[in-house]
Amino acid sequence: MSDRAEQLGQLTAKFAGWDAIFGGTTLLTKNELVAACSGVSVLGFNILMAKYTGDEKSITLLVKGSTQTINRKGLIGNPELSGVVALTAVSEFLGTDLCPGCNGRGSIFPKGTAVRTCKTCEGKGRVTPGQRRRARLAGVPVQEWRDHSCDKVVAKIRNILEREEGAALVIFFRKIQG
Ligand SMILES: [Zn+2]
Predict the structure, then answer these.
(1) Domain hosting residue 98, numbered range
(2) Which of 5, 83, 94, 125 could be bridged to 1 by S-S, CB 3.0 to 4.6 A?
């Protein structure tokens, strides 16, 4: 496997160096990603660009596309909420819900003892914020957030993004290993 492939592999693994992505270090250039992405869906391409190069245009497109999906499927009674719910789903997908207990690693390494699974997130590396926190971050009254089942819509959008990311990564790895 090439160095780049290995780096991306490490990123997607559980012990991902999240600090590297969100600390401002870019592991892939946009051109490298573009070259390895022929055959990846447009959505998948924007997902990889957003997640692994931090491309702002792609992030904007993901939020826009997710908002349109919510509206098209009529997932929320009040269309004024679609945008903020989409933004919540995309930002969580891009990694802002990392577990504070283990910083997204899923395990903790106490000095002088064996590696332990993080109790806060049960090894998942992520914690799903509760309705209250999501509503606050989105600037929507909690009651309204709850009334429109916004949590369910966030979960649905995240599922779509995760599925599409998985499909895109399969193609991506095939290309760069080719
Ligand atoms: Zn944790």
Answers:
(1) 3-177
(2) 5
